[in-house]
Amino acid sequence: MVRVVGENVDVNIYPINKAKDMARQLGLDLVEISPNSDPPVCKIIDYSKFKYMQKKKQKSIRSNAQKTVLKEIRFGPNTDEHDFNFKLKHAIKFLESGAKVKAYVHFYGRTIVFKERGEILLLKLAQALEDYANVEELPKLEGKRMFLMLSPKK
Asked: Which CATH number covers residue 129?
């Protein structure tokens, strides 16, 4: 027994064979829409058209999905106050436009000995941006770079 729905069909509960005969008479297909309900719901439709409409709907959902933009801001371990403020303004602008910000300190040559300075710099940036962003990832060192990930507050 299945519940049959569709255009030009009396919505009712029919035996499965009767539902198949009804679909065949209309020249359409019997498609199970809701298998978990009691009784299962079947719809009499053109299956190829149904698949086409599903693909079209999925495509529109994907095209309307918001794409996340990742902006990077690079610092050196000896970044001065003026340069820090300049890059801070850029980070604010990026976050307000809805982009994620990946700030990193690049250690070159022997500056790797100043890891603490890099971490302090990134934590200072995170503190300055606390009104605009959430910290996704705290500063961590990978190779010659120390990263900080920030995502915009909604």
From this structure: 3.30.110.10
